[in-house]
Design a protein that fits this description.
It contains 15 helices and two strands. It is an all-alpha fold and 393 residues long. Strand 1 and strand 2 form a beta hairpin. It is globular.
Length: 393
């Protein structure tokens, strides 16, 4: 509870000047994220054959990690703005569930039809009831052949939903003390690299049998435990941007890097490079927010990024079936633009048909009705302020 009080006090003192007072940059960053995600998948289906170009498009994988940073910062922003409401944890879960679940559940049967249930890299033994149930309950991140097997790219949805599950407890315990978020990120990273990943790799490699080592290694790399430090660093960056950076922040980051390097050398986990990429990426995200970077086309994509993320796999699949151009640079660029345009159209449709209704329901479930008792002598023509409310509004 003391952490909650500190959060509320910090927001009151600094809310007027915080860089998070502008949502445009967060939408811009989400737009960058979805642009990167579409780039990597477009290049996989429509390769240019030019190594430098294909490599550049493949670097779009960092788009998911941009989403993670933005998600952590957005959750911190929402939480600090709502510290005075009743039952904040319950309302947080309602809002997050209704934001994610409806579209995701729609995607499950669609991709089962599109991709089938046969064996694949992500599901060596095929898709059965277990994989579908785990995916529908957002538990697919905890079992290797459930990740990315039912819904393409659903590993990030698993990580997001699991982060939402633990977030209220973490922010309630840590408050605005960003050093605690960084310390926990460091500890979890070292536990993953030194203990969990070697143990889990041996376990699942034996379970799935020879020839599936690459599948197991990939599943562990995209597991929630390997992604959670990114979210925690994002929380720390939120409070650093809001309250100002300190020398202790730099000292903890330096210790984080040094310990990660030593652990990587000792275990051969190959996660040090991933950590460094994410720390640099986090610095870039912080700079964008600090300087209020914005560009309306990316902001438009960012406002529709979730639906575009889920739908662009199907869009690319459909394009590949009818694509008239031979592989090459022109084919890749045109396919990328068409993918973005069609995914945006689908996103606008799902907003009106599904997402808007789900958000309206979340608002009704989390907003306490307020009753205004008018004065006996009050006169309320349209547009006149009455007891703090505008009549006719």
């Amino acid at each position: 509870m003391q952490g909650q009080a500190r959060l509320a006090a910090g927001w009151t003192d600094k809310g007027a000047t915080t860089p998070f007072g502008r949502s445009h940059t967060l939408d811009f960053l989400r737009g960058l994220g979805i642009a990167g995600v579409m780039a990597i998948h477009a290049s996989q289906s429509f390769p240019s054959g030019i190594r430098a170009i294909d490599f550049t498009f493949m670097c779009g994988w960092i788009g998911v990690n941009v989403f993670y940073f933005v998600s952590a910062m957005t959750m911190c922003l929402m939480w600090t703005q709502r510290t005075s409401e009743s039952n904040p944890t319950r309302k947080f879960y309602v809002r997050r569930f209704l934001r994610i679940a409806p579209l995701f559940w729609l995607a499950i049967p669609i991709y089962l039809v599109v991709n089938g249930t046969g064996p694949s890299f992500n599901a060596p033994d095929g898709i059965g009831p277990l994989q579908v149930i785990l995916t529908a309950t957002f538990l697919h991140g905890f079992w290797p052949d459930s990740v990315n097997s039912v819904v393409p790219g659903d590993w990030s949805i698993a990580a997001e939903m699991t982060f939402y599950l633990v977030f209220p407890f973490v922010i309630t315990a840590f408050g605005a003390r960003r050093n605690l978020y960084l310390a926990l990120a460091m500890v979890l990273h070292l536990v993953n690299v030194c203990l969990f990943k070697p143990w889990a790799f041996a376990l699942f490699s034996a379970y799935y049998g020879p020839g599936n080592e690459a599948f197991v290694w990939n599943a562990l790399h995209i597991s929630f435990l390997n992604q959670l430090p990114i979210f925690l660093v994002g929380c720390a960056l939120f409070f650093s941007l809001r309250d100002g950076f300190a020398k202790s922040d730099a000292a903890i980051f330096a210790a984080f890097i040094a310990l990660s390097f030593a652990a990587d050398r000792a275990t051969g986990s190959h996660e040090f490079n991933y950590l460094m990429i994410n720390l640099v990426l986090g610095a870039g995200v912080a700079c964008c927010i600090r300087f209020a970077i914005r560009w309306w086309p990316l902001e438009a994509l960012g406002r529709n990024s979730y639906s575009m993320y889920l739908s662009h796999f199907a869009v690319i699949y459909g394009l590949r079936q009818v694509w008239p151009l031979a592989d090459g640079l022109a084919s890749l660029l045109i396919a990328y633009v068409v993918t973005a345009a069609l995914s945006y159209v689908v996103a606008r449709a799902t907003w009106h048909l599904i997402e808007r209704r789900a958000q309206d329901l979340a608002h009704r479930l989390t907003t306490s009705p307020t009753k205004t008792v008018p004065r006996a002598d009050a006169v309320a023509p349209s547009g006149v302020v009455l007891n703090g409310h505008r009549a006719g509004a």
